[in-house]
Design a protein that fits this description.
Length: 948
């Protein structure tokens, strides 16, 4: 369900731009293709080289031929060392290749090679847009990492195995030296630079763009042609005669894009910023009559980019059969020091106000906040000194790391009272415990206390810390949890696995080794000196467990050390949490990941194991792309296997949403065209499958869970609507859901029974109210967006967020269901890291599932011997659903006891409203677990009182 954009985004389209903001540029022409005879592959006959040459106006035109067997696979031309006016490129900032593509409908997939006199090479690939006078700009410092730039001996351009014929004119090569920019504008206006610099739009499927007298850009998209698959885009590159401040955007904190819908169909678009190593910041958005304006104001300096070496920025749209027009009103980078320092201020204030932070370090934290203020005061005016900016950001980062270290050391020092040869602490299940660098709220392990109801799970962490020596074979165990009348609760202990998480595209408290997996088969581990190492303790209460206090001891041992024991008390409330989820859930299961990530070619047994595991976490095992029978090329090939899985879940009461058909027009050449013959074939196939499955599900009593899904994040077009109308005519009882988009007066869009518009329940209540007034269901949906601090299941989101999102936040905003794009996405894991074997440090790579969004699609991860390991996030998701059950049970208790004490009923009804100190908005909520637990306790005690 990811929006998978064209490779257009990973490549660079360049325009030569004029000087801006007083930047001084020196340009030196190294060579002209017009004046030189290019180097070619003379060992191959001319007709086999893959191109023909002809003179051009400013250079040489190369007609690359469509690759045929027997021709050169690598069709190239080049200029050798003697043909280059300068072989020593040191002292320059960029080498610039000027060229022009003459293809109307295709990219030119160009490969550039630079070689030194010892045959070391620098190599890069680019896609050059059609009918574009372009420049490819290569940073010298990047080339210098690969070759000796004082002895350049070859500059070569090539196309490898050309898919279609291409035609381009290569003009000349320039070396560019730019004076460093000491003063930079607070607001760097991209539109202003584009308007000064000539053509800045690559007309891929775009026919016209122009600036009006107010400096706004009117941009018209031509109808999309089926013979090519590409996205219309506007791009601006760095380093070409001063453009984009030569790619040095250090200090810029935000990017702003204000864009209007003018006419045409709804338009899915994307905004992207990339550095020369191809790391990217990206943001998707939609323009439509219902959303005629998008004002994007995004924090960018937290993205994992090299801001001293930015390559390009672009905005782009999806292809469409009709013409569309948009207007770009504003497009700029801006420096906002206050907002830049806000995440660090917030983090320091969280540490300052945290009950677990020792009092003696709080004055030091206040001093760090003052230090940030002083560094910020000098940043005033429209032009800022680069040195002042760098000092400011250095100060902010230093204060952040100092605060983490100070609090971390103080908290760990307080653990010394618990244990002789090592120290032991306790942390909440919503608290990430970091092995290194960052602070975690860990309290001395004098006594642990948790609360839960019957048929519920709750957890906490025992943290083992050794300040002076490495520990071998550390083991945590729990004695029998004995309660009223000798009743027992179940306890489980597991080592917490940490994975190496990179800095993502949002502000985080920590990057590096991050707590993620619960290694259920590992109860002991070595603990390195100086690394507080968490062990997960999960408590499970059976149905109808007697209410009251249950007691046990937690024992921590290590080789050649004195053990440490502390008491554990568990309070069980006098009611049961129902099995399953209080709202419909659909977490998309990826079966290919079973084959690749778990190394299991015959995936059915593991598939059932994962389904049952999902059920234990109150989350539906589902697949919105296949339905229960497999893909569109099969017909009921997996019927018996899949039916057994869903029948088992249903009997356990753990069956959530059940997608029985994906009705997207897969295989149609033009999905928008209702007359495409493939549409009729798809209708026939879909109806046959439903005719087979609906009676089965009805007989099994599962039909109320069934739904169909389609139009994944695309517009509900005429072709799509034809399929859905045919299905709804015969099966009106089966609801249809989609993450697609459209207008509420669009008859195609109104065919849907349910909408899955991200987190609109929280952020766009007016539109959601209109949807519900039409009788539609509205779900939560997470897939790459939103990013934290908004609701997200990304690894480095605030620790409380997964629980709040599916618990108290869901209670506040009332979605009808929850869809998440992936439960187990591990398609590339085999190539990268392999399964988790043991912890606490693991080889698991959380970047596998989404670009820069660590772990978002991996709520279960592969363990040794094909184990399915839960993550801390899915544990907290289950806890959130159990919190939501508390609210449902309180609602039921109120309804069933109308004659209860009036004051009690009033208090209970008020408790159904989530207080703003817990959730104020989708991105403003408490970060303190104890506040969440206190509110939960209040709800539980009200349920008990009303049930008496």
């Amino acid at each position: 369900m990811k929006i998978i954009m064209s490779k257009f985004f990973a490549v660079i389209f360049f325009c030569i731009l004029s000087l801006s903001y007083g930047n001084t540029v020196e340009v030196f022409k190294v060579a002209s293709f017009k004046d030189q005879t290019p180097d070619v592959n003379t060992y191959i006959a001319a007709e086999k080289r893959g191109y023909t040459l002809e003179p051009g106006k400013e250079g040489i035109i190369v007609n690359f031929k469509k690759y045929a067997k027997g021709n050169a696979k690598f069709a190239y031309i080049g200029l050798k060392g003697k043909q280059l006016a300068v072989n020593d490129w040191s002292g320059y900032d960029y080498v610039n290749l000027r060229l022009e593509s003459y293809d109307e409908d295709h990219f030119l997939p160009l490969e550039v090679l630079v070689r030194d006199n010892r045959n070391k090479i620098y190599f890069r690939k680019f896609n050059v847009g059609p009918f574009a006078e372009s420049s490819i700009s290569l940073p010298i410092k990047e080339i210098a990492k690969k070759i000796n730039i004082k002895a350049v001996n070859l500059f070569q351009v090539a196309v490898s195995q050309c898919v279609n014929s291409r035609r381009a004119e290569f003009k000349d090569i320039e070396l560019i030296k730019s004076a460093p920019v000491e003063l930079i504008p607070r607001k760097y206006d991209i539109l202003q630079e584009l308007s000064k610099g000539g053509p800045a739009v690559v007309p891929v499927t775009t026919t016209k763009f122009e600036f009006d007298k107010n400096g706004k850009l009117l941009w018209e998209f031509a109808p999309h042609s089926n013979k090519v698959n590409k996205y219309p885009g506007l791009a601006l590159a760095s380093g070409i005669r001063g453009s984009l401040l030569n790619g040095d955007l250090r200090g810029y904190t935000h990017i702003v894009l204000d864009i209007d819908y003018i006419d045409g169909n709804a338009q899915g678009m994307g905004l992207r910023v990339a550095d020369h190593s191809r790391k990217e910041f990206w943001k998707s958005f939609k323009l439509a009559p219902s959303t005629p304006n998008q004002h994007i104001d995004e924090r960018i300096n937290t993205a994992n980019l090299n801001f001293s070496n930015i390559s390009h920025i672009n905005i782009s749209g999806r292809p469409d059969k009709d013409k569309r027009t948009v207007r770009v009103n504003q497009f700029y980078f801006e420096i906002r020091p206050q907002e830049a320092s806000e995440p660090v201020r917030t983090r320091i204030n969280l540490l300052l106000n945290d009950s677990g932070t020792p009092a003696n370090v709080k004055p030091v934290l206040k001093k760090l906040l003052e230090k940030i203020d002083n560094a910020q005061k000098v940043l005033s005016g429209d032009m800022l000194k680069r040195s002042d900016l760098i000092n400011f950001f250095d100060t902010v980062e230093n204060c952040r790391s100092d605060a983490e270290l100070i609090v971390r050391n103080a908290i760990l020092a307080e653990l010394k009272s618990c244990g002789k040869d090592f120290n032991v602490g306790i942390a909440d299940s919503m608290t990430p415990v970091f092995l290194e660098k960052s602070a975690s709220n860990i309290s001395p392990a004098r006594k642990a206390f948790i609360e839960l109801a019957g048929q519920e799970f709750e957890s906490f962490q025992t943290v083992v810390y050794s300040p002076l020596k490495n520990l071998k074979n550390v083991k945590v165990s729990v004695s029998d949890l004995i309660g009223p009348k000798g009743a027992k609760l179940k306890s489980e202990v597991a080592v917490v696995g940490h994975c190496n998480a990179i800095l993502p595209a949002f502000a985080v408290d920590h990057h590096g080794f991050y707590p993620d997996s619960i290694i259920e088969y590992q109860q002991s581990a070595d603990v390195a000196k100086g690394e507080p190492t968490p062990f997960w303790i999960r408590i499970t209460s059976p149905k109808d467990a007697p209410a009251g206090i249950y007691k046990a001891n937690v024992v921590v041992t290590a080789d050649n050390c004195a053990s440490y024991t502390f008491p554990l008390e568990v309070r069980v409330f006098g009611f049961n949490v129902p099995v399953g989820s209080p709202i419909l859930t659909a977490l998309n299961y990826d079966r290919m990941s079973i084959k690749v990530g778990w190394h299991e070619p015959y995936y059915y047994p593991l598939q059932k194991k994962m389904a049952l595991k999902s059920g234990e976490y109150r989350l539906s095992f589902d697949s919105v792309f296949y339905g229960p029978w497999g893909d569109h090329s099969k017909f009921d090939a997996e019927k018996d296997v899949i039916l057994d899985i869903y029948r088992t879940l249903h009997k356990k009461g753990q069956l959530g949403g059940l997608c029985i058909l994906n009705f997207s027009p897969m295989g149609a050449k033009d999905q928008a065209d209702p007359n495409d013959p493939a549409i009729d074939r798809l209708i026939e196939n879909a109806l046959a499958k439903l005719r087979n499955w609906v009676p089965i599900l009805k007989k099994e009593g599962m039909l109320d869970k069934a739904y169909i899904y389609g139009y994944d994040e695309v517009k509900v077009s005429d072709g799509c609507a034809k399929i859905l109308r045919a299905i709804k005519k015969e099966f009106p009882e089966i609801p249809a859901f989609s993450t697609g988009f459209g207008e509420l007066d669009d008859p195609n869009y109104l065919l849907l029974d349910g909408y899955v518009p991200g987190i609109a329940c929280a952020d766009d209540p007016e539109r959601v109210a209109k949807m519900r007034a039409l009788g539609k269901k509205v779900w939560w949906y997470t897939c790459n967006y939103p990013r934290p601090p908004k609701p997200s299941l990304m690894l480095q989101a605030p620790g409380v967020l997964p629980r709040l999102f599916l618990g108290m936040m869901t209670q506040k905003y009332k979605p009808d269901g929850f869809l998440h794009w992936a439960l187990n996405w591990a398609r590339k894991m085999q190539e990268v890291s392999g399964p988790i074997m043991y912890g606490p440090r693991t080889t698991w790579d959380p970047r596998l599932d989404a670009r820069g969004d660590n772990g978002e699609g991996m709520l279960f991860v592969p363990g040794k011997d094909k184990a399915i390991l839960p993550t801390i996030r899915i544990e907290n998701m289950r806890d959130g659903l159990e919190d939501l059950w508390y609210y449902k049970l309180l609602e039921k208790a109120i309804a069933e006891n109308p004659k209860a004490d009036a004051a009690l009923l009033k208090k209970a009804e008020a408790a159904l409203v989530v207080p703003e100190n817990i959730v104020r908005s989708s991105d403003k909520y408490t970060r303190y677990p104890e506040i969440i637990r206190s509110e939960r306790r209040k709800i539980a005690e009200l349920i008990e009182k009303l049930q008496k």
